[in-house]
Amino acid sequence: MRGRKIGLLGGSFNPAHDGHRRISLAAIRLLDLDEIWWLVSPQNPLKPKEGMAEFENRIVAARKIARNPRIKVSDFEARIGEQRTARTLAALKVTYPQHRFVWLMGADNLVQLPKWQQWERIMALVPIAIFNRPGYTYKALNGKAAIKYRKSRIIGHASDRKRRNLAALTPPAWTFLPETTIKLSSTQIRNYRDTEGNTCS
Ligand SMILES: Nc1ncnc2c1ncn2[C@@H]1O[C@H](COP(=O)(O)OP(=O)(O)OP(=O)(O)O)[C@@H](O)[C@H]1O
Ligand SMILES: O=C(O)c1ccc[n+]([C@@H]2O[C@H](COP(=O)([O-])O)[C@@H](O)[C@H]2O)c1
């Protein structure tokens, strides 16, 4: 199989929303990626189980939102029985040695990253792109992860070849993408459904 450049958007997708779709399309454009895989997490170890919709329902809803042949919704973590990103990434690299992966996440998760299991191993496994997210920009760019890895940050505009070619760089390498500012979140949708009296699944 031909090697491709793939952006990995890991998430709870509880539920998926148009923000996920918009950042995915932005990543394809800005980082010259071939595909985005939405890695639906069986259960984020740092989030409460209560209020987490059934895995299968989150997958089905994510497929409806993705609506693009270059965005693939994946149950890889459920299939290998994994919830920890470091181990998922290691498994993906072994399973698909022909592909180049970039880990994608919002600025809120860069703030949280030092709480993840083996977070420095994650930095060493794949290049990472961080999406701007309203309310988190300052905290993310001045947080523990950003400071510790400041020398590995690729700073550049959309036209910058090094940033565009992030997938080909040897990690640790990360960049911040200020191009999107999207207020949508799953929390908002869950809150709206609750006030409307609908169920969350
Ligand atoms: N509007 C957004 N802008 C930038 N990144 C986003 C946005 N929405 C989600 N993401 C990122 O997409 C990934 C998956 O997000 P997730 O499924 O947790 O959705 P969420 O909206 O952050 O959910 P919740 O509100 O329940 O925390 C995370 O890395 C998250 O930071
Ligand atoms: O590996 C960890 O310890 C870890 C801790 C918290 C979150 N993650 C991953 O971070 C991704 C984003 O999660 P979420 O819930 O913010 O969408 C998702 O793939 C989770 O599995 C991973």
UniProtKB/TrEMBL annotation:
The keyword Nucleotidyltransferase applies. Pathway: Cofactor biosynthesis; NAD(+) biosynthesis; deamido-NAD(+) from nicotinate D-ribonucleotide: step 1/1. The keyword Lyase does not apply. One of its GO terms (biological process) is NAD+ biosynthetic process. Gene3D superfamilies: HUPs. Its EC number is 2.7.7.18. CDD domains: NMNAT. It comes from the Bacteria. It catalyses: nicotinate beta-D-ribonucleotide + ATP + H(+) = deamido-NAD(+) + diphosphate. Keywords: ATP-binding, NAD, Nucleotide-binding, Nucleotidyltransferase, Pyridine nucleotide biosynthesis, Transferase. Catalyzes the reversible adenylation of nicotinate mononucleotide (NaMN) to nicotinic acid adenine dinucleotide (NaAD). HAMAP family: NaMN_adenylyltr. This is Probable nicotinate-nucleotide adenylyltransferase. The gene is nadD.
